[in-house]
Amino acid sequence: MGIEKRMKIVCLGDSITWGYPHGMQYSWVSMLGKVLDAALINEGINGDTTGQMLRRFNQSVLTHHPTHLIIMGGINDVFLRVSYSRIILNLQTMAEIAQEHGIKVILGLPTAVDSPEFERMLWRIRKWMRDYADEKGYPVIDFTSAFYDQSGELRNELLLPDGGHPTIEGYQAMFQVLDPGIFRFRVGGHNHL
Fold first, then answer.
1. End-to-end CA, the chain
2. pLDDT digit string, tens, across residues 109-135
3. May I ask the CATH architecture of the domain 7-182?
4. Which end of the chain has the smaller Cβ count within 10 Å, N or C?
C-alpha cells in the first residue's frame, strides 16, 4: 500500500482569492494554509473573469499537479456583463478538466456585492453552482453567507467602500465559513486530512 501524497490545493480565482487590496497574506487562502497540513497555491489574479481563469487553467492549475482545486469566480464577469450561460459554461468546463485529471473539485460561491442589480445575477450563478455541485458530489464553500447577517441583511462593514472587495475582517469572515473537513477523504475506514 503506497503512502498518500501530501494534499496540494490550488485556489483559482480573482482578486477575492488573491486578497485584494490588502495582500495575499490577508487572503482566506493564506488563513486556510495555516490550519491545513497541505500546500496551498494562491492562483487568484486581480480582475480575472471565469473566461480568463479557463484560458490560464493549464498554467495555473495543471502544472501544479494538485490533489484539490477550489474554483471561485464570476463577479468580474457580472460587472462586465458576460452572459449567464457563458459564465456557467466556463465554470463547468474548468470543473470537468480538473475531474479528468483526477483533481478533487470544490466550488466557492462568489461573495456578496453591494449592488442589487449585480446580486440578482450572482444569485443565479450561486444557485447553478449549488445544483451542479449536488449533481456531481462536489463540496461547496458558501463564502456568500459570510457577508449576510441572520436577518439576511448585507454586512456592509465587511466590504470596502467599492462595495465588492472584502475588508480584512471580511476575509476573516470568509475563512470562518470554510469547513476544513471538506478536504477529508476516506481510506480504509479512517478519515484523513
1. 18
2. 999 999 999 999 999 999 999 999 999
3. 3-Layer(aba) Sandwich (3.40)
4. N
